């Protein structure tokens, strides 16, 4: 059974837009720094990895999405723009730029090549796992493999596919819901209801995520 390679059993959440400075700070503090990769291209990812390694020799985590991108829905986009238009005008923002930021690409051949080149200590996934061939290449690159589960069913699914640890993501977690076996948000319990159920259901270490803001939350998660 693998354990986290960081000095402390704490992981900095991989948040899009944080880039290398936050990961470097987390690594220097003894936690596992993380880099959100879903909004980066391969070359930008290489630059961010180089920036981290220029400042610290501590291990770090590269996080990727494993989702199936939705088909564009122009009618839905038009409805959103109509709804948001008054707020954009009030804030003096350009509505034409709404939704034009970087997309979230799933893990693919190009990103797998970056993992093989850079050999990070940890690779984590959101929304399940990539296909078996890509996942095996990540393992051969020497990375510890993590993925998030929002239900006990998802945790069992990940455990059956051989991940090294499972991130139990409660409904309190900010940003993306890592749901991948259902899209029913009502099926996702709170962290402190989910966590003991996942621990009892799987045979690998479990990482708590969602609404942990201070030492009391950390103590509760460890308990």
Helix-residue proportion:
25-40%
Net shape? globular
Order of helices and strands: HEHEHHEHEHEHEH
In terms of DSSP E residues, the strand content is 5-15%
State the helix count: 8
List the helices and strands and how they pair.
Layout: H1 19-28, E1 33-36, H2 42-55, E2 60-65, H3 74-91, H4 109-118, E3 122-126, H5 132-140, E4 144-149, H6 152-160, E5 165-169, H7 191-201, E6 206-209, H8 215-222
Parallel strand pairs: 1-2, 2-3, 3-4, 4-5, 5-6
Helix pairs in contact: 1-2, 2-4, 4-5
Sum this structure up briefly:
The protein is an alpha/beta fold and 223 residues long.
Question: What does this molecule look like?
Answer:
The two termini are 20 Å apart. 40% of the residues lie in helices and 13% in strands. With 223 residues, it is an alpha/beta fold. It contains 8 helices and 6 strands.
């Amino acid at each position: 059974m693998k354990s986290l390679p960081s000095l402390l059993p704490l992981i900095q959440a991989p948040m899009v837009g944080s880039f290398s400075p936050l990961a470097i700070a987390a690594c220097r503090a003894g936690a596992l720094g993380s880099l959100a990769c879903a909004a980066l291209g391969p070359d930008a990812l290489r630059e961010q990895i180089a920036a981290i390694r220029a400042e610290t020799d501590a291990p770090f985590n590269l996080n990727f999405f494993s989702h199936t991108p939705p088909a564009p829905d122009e009618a839905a986009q038009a409805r959103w723009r109509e709804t948001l238009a008054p707020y954009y005008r009030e804030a003096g923002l350009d509505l034409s730029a709404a939704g034009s930021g970087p997309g979230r690409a799933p893990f693919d051949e190009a990103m797998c090549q970056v993992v093989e080149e850079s050999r990070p200590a940890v690779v984590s996934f959101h929304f399940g796992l990539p296909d078996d061939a890509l996942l095996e290449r990540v393992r051969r690159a020497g990375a510890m493999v993590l993925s998030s589960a929002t239900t006990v069913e998802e945790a069992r699914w990940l455990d059956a596919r051989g991940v090294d640890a499972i991130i139990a993501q409660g409904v309190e977690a900010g940003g993306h819901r890592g749901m991948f076996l259902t899209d029913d948000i009502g099926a996702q319990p709170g962290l402190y209801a989910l966590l003991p159920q996942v621990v009892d259901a799987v045979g690998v270490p479990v990482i708590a995520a969602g609404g942990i803001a201070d030492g009391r939350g950390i103590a509760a998660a460890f308990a």
